[in-house]
Structures are given as structure tokens and as C-alpha cells.
Description:
CATH architecture: Up-down Bundle
Structural class: mainly alpha
CATH topology: Growth Hormone, Chain: A
CATH class: Mainly Alpha
Shape: globular
CATH superfamily: MFS general substrate transporter like domains
Number of helices: 18
Helix content: over 70%
Amino acid sequence: MDPYAALRFKEFNxxxxxxxxxxxxxxxxxxxxxxxxxxxxxxxxxxxIIGLMEVIPAVSMALFAxxxxxxxxxxxxxxxxxxxxxxxxxxxFMLSWPSMxxxxxxxxxxxxxxxxxxxxxxxxSFLGPTIFSLIALIVPKKIYPNAATWSSTTWQLASVLGxxxxxxxxxxxxxxxxxxxxxxxxxxxLISLFQISTKPILNPKIGEPVFESLREGLRFVFNTKAVxxxxxxxxxxxLFGGAVALLPIFAQDILHxxxxxxxxxxxxxxxxxxxxxxxxxxxxxxxNAGKKLLFAxxxxxxxxxxxxxxxxxxxxxxxxxxxxxxxxxxxxxxxxILQLKTPDNMRGRVASVxxxxxxxxxxxxxxxxxxxAKLMGTVTAVxxxxxxxxxxxxxxxxxxxxxxxxxxxKDIDEHEANE
Length: 419
């Protein structure tokens, strides 16, 4: 297959630009918030609360958001999502104004940050399903795997640069102007999005009762073993492997590397994942996908244990880099499974379930890491999470031989034959 097949569509390139700008802004904003909150509180639990504030609305509204996405036009819905994020980022910019500390006490500022993060969780519950559904309307089905790879690669590249720039910008221009930069990227994404035309609504059941629609979406996910297995495995791994949420503690109190070192640590996993994804455009991962996914998540658990035990900065960077590389394999395989197995009229609902399983488990994992760090210590919490990941993969490999044998080549051949 042509490794640049998806890039030959103009709207897909614009889509990648929009996705890059949004992921860059969102990941950078999360890092700046983490740094600001921990600097204010010096309490690891406060980092967990940030994740919890985002995961509560993201999970509670996910299925409803998927129903709405399947019922509405995707381009305009994405415009509303990005506009909502822009309003939130502007609020954080105003809240971080240096003079604000003279007007509001630390507790009030902290609660306002939590509130804006909560609103961001609502926006995110719609953003993920909308993006997932829009991809399928921009490129032909036969190049879904290639489009999924480029989309995931763009996500990871933005995840590399966003955290890295966040760490450096905190040092160079401070939290306040870092928030201003984030707002600028969200506006750039909003303007670029209008170069993509509106798309047809492919759902034949417009006006379907919401609960009936949600049941249908859930039934599809739980009855499709490849989809359910991939989501469950990744959810458990991310939930217990959420060491990234504790990076401010490692940077400030264990490795003593400051904000610039924090940026390097935060970017290392995304660098590894981005390189994996760029390589996968020439060396696809769809053959023996089940075994590759199991090995990838097992490797992720090993890396978390090494990172937790390390007291050397560059060993920690390498462990995080490798964790990102194997996580990139997991992400590509999962996204390819979802794109190939999901009917067009259910993409919003399936993507919402995906966000509940995987996307929200990042924030729930942040809360779990913050809580366990509070209870058993930071290093022990990370090692515990890595060990739980290894147990999860081992159990999945034993109890699900069908998943071990999963191969996506047949699905790709069928889509090519139908074009």
C-alpha cells in the first residue's frame, strides 16, 4: 500500500493540521496546569484531582455525546468543540494573570482551575467521537488503516511538542503567557477547520430515541470481540500505568531537574510513540495484530517499573521513551480495529465508548496514581501500576486465545474489494 495514500487528499491534510493544533494546545495546557497546581499545593493528590475533574464529565457524558455525534453534521460540531476549548483556555489565561493572586486567594484560584478543567472534560466528551467520525468522511474506506496511522502519528507529534514546549515556556515566559500561547493555537485550529466542507449525515435513524441508540452502540461494542478486547486491555494498562501524572513530583523532588527537565520527561513517551507511528506507515502492523498488541502492552508495564525505580535522569528518559514506542504500537492497532470494524452510522457511539474505556482512563489513571502516591509513596505507586499492567496482559493472553490470533489483513482485503 502507498504509505502516503491518505495525504493525497487535501481535506485530510487540513484535518491533520487541525488535529495537531488541538492536541498540541490541549497537551500543553494540561502540563502547564499540572505544574501550576503542584507548585501551589505541593500535594500529589492535587494532581490526581486534576485528572478526576476531567474524567467525571468525560465518562458521564460520553455515551450521550456519541449519540449526538451520530445525529449531527460532523464539521460544524467540531467547530463548536474547538470554540468551547478556546473559551476555557482564555479563562485559564485570565486566571493565571499575576495580579490575580492579589484579588483571589490560592484556594479560590485552585477551585477555579478545577472548574475549568471540568468544563474541558465536557468538551472532550464530544471532541473525540467527532474527530473519529470525521476521518471516515474525508478518505475512502480502503485507506482507513493508512489514515488512522497518520492521524495517530499527528496526535503523537503534537503530544511530543506540546509537553516539551510547555516545560520550556514555563521557564522562559512563565505560566501566564504559556496559557496565552495555548489560546493562540486553539484559534488557529478553529480558523483552519473552515477549509473543510460540511459532510453528509450517514445515520439512517435520525431522531432515534436516545436510550435505544445508546443500547445499540453498547451492544455492538460488547458483541464485537476484537473491539471489546482491544479497549479492555488498553484501559486496564493505562489505568494502572498512569505514572506520567506524577512527573512533576519526579522532576521536582526525585530527579531534581526543574521545569526544563520536566518538559523532556513529559515529551519522551510521545517521541517514542511518534517514531513508532512514522515507521508503521511503511511497515504496517495489521498482521498478527493480537499478538503485537499483547507484547506492546507487556513492554509498557516493564517500562513503568524501570521508570519508577530509576534515580538517574537519562535512564528515566529512556524508560519513558520506550514506553511511548510500545504504546504507539498499541494505539495504531486499536485505532485500526475501530476504523475497520465500526459501521459508519455508529462511529460516534463507538468512539464514545472508546473514550470511556481508554481516553478517560488516562485521567482516572492520573487520579489512581495521585491517590496511591499519597498512600504508599510515589515510587511504590509507579512500580505497583507497572506490575498490575503485566498481570492484566498475562491474564488476557491466557483467557482469550481468539484475541491472540487476531489478524486484520482479511478486513483490509474486504474493504479494498468493495471500493
